[in-house]
# Entry
Amino acid sequence: MKKFTALFAVLLFFSACDVFEFRGFVLPYETVDERFEQSMAWNAEHPYTSVHVPQDGYTLFVMGDTHTGDTVNLNLFLDEAAETGAAGAVMAGDLTTGNDADFYTFYRQLPPEDSLYTFPLAGNHDLYFHGWEQYYELFGSSIYLFTVHTPNDSDLYVCLDSGAGTLGRKQIAWLKTLLETQRPAYRYCILFSHSNFFRIRRMTATNPYVEELQLLNELCLRHEVNMVIAGHDHVKNTASLGNTEFLILDALKDGDRNAGYLILTAGADTFPMNSSTCSKRERGVIREIGVSFFP
Amino acid sequence: MMKYIRILCFSFLLLLIPRQLPAQIGVTGHVESGEHNASEGMYVRAGVGAEYRLNKIAIHGDLQFDIISNVPRSFSGLKLGLSRRLEIREFPVEIGAFFLHKPYSDLQYENNWGLLARTDHRHFHVMLGNGFRAYRLTRQAVQDYPEDAGSVIRENWNLIYNIGYQLKTEEDPWNAGVFLSNMDRFLMNQETNPMLYLRGSARIVPDLRLFAEACYKQAGVFNISANYFGFFFRTGLRWEL
# Structure
């Protein structure tokens, strides 16, 4: 009886937790297919962003897992992106804990669109506590694309909703059609996902099912996706299969010992992606990771 | 070099097999139908397997073929295994190793191998192990995409588990049970993607058993906002020769 009382007390304690939401661990508030439908409805009314840059080279800032609350690292990221004239800032999910207040805190930090384009993704934590309602209200679609156009080339960036541990059948079909029909028109193609595809190291983070990864791997190879960038695991890592480089980001969360973000540099050359081009610099509380993927 | 090491290992294993005891042979055939988020509709598969057991040692091999699926080839799985029964302080344990080859595309395939330990205690069934996975490119892919940077991604030290409870014991004419596992006949999932099984079997005639199972797959359980992923039904026959 004592064991059951202790177990009940532990469950009661965690049921009041505002970081982990145990219902979300087994039952969703809404399915990824429902979010897909809502996202497509949003996309129909809000055309995809096309960023035009005046020169052939440009940078794109990418981060994940801020888990706002605190916003010190988030502001460093956004400030540097805006100051350096980045083409945009991609935020690869787990932006918040899913609580209402955190969504508004996060949203208030974002700069106006005329100073920096921002591209948020939904992560699993953003969906806890019915977080999708706030996400949709503030950011709109969680499944979309954007393009960057230089004087001579155009690059395709696809933002995916993987907060459910699966892209869902509708999103997979959408992605497949997109890659088949639109990928050939672009120089580089990069997918952003919150959940990391591969377990490159031992981890407790949940990934898409193997059967889904098999299909996604094949799509990436067949359609020459250059890179898949994800967060979720909080520890940076890289691996490559065929012509696709799979990157996992460090978390940007305040207080994280290895907090960091990624600076993608797109150049005019062909694509000799090499993770050995990573360089690191120290600045204040945050370790930045500068990566020139397109030298 | 690797070829000779394999021959040596296999020869060594053959030496372990006692020669004077009667052998048991089991043959299994099954069909499976289901769907999941990446299957692009319903799929139908068939599998055949054979097991050769001599005293405490068993060797088994299984093949899987896709009849209806979005996989561009019919041969879709090969599994080879070796196991040995032990008694550790009178506690029965079966240890084993497996190799699983999954050609899921013309361009890529998966190789998995792992070590397993299993015990059955009347109604309870527990299997634990560790698996290693490698996603690889086929020769065709290497030819088609010569500028490829990498030809393999490895996922090492993947925990394998299969935990279940059955209403009856193995000797009874029928049985039914519920299982939680991340390992299926031709699939080694990540440990964070458990599959829930309902299994039943019945002896039709001596040495011939009919089995059926239903599996429910939920994506993202435990640290993701969980969603439905897929299901399948499987039925087949096992014949003990």
User: Anything to note?
Assistant: Chain B touches chain A through 49 residues (CB under 8 Å). The mean pLDDT of chain B is 89.
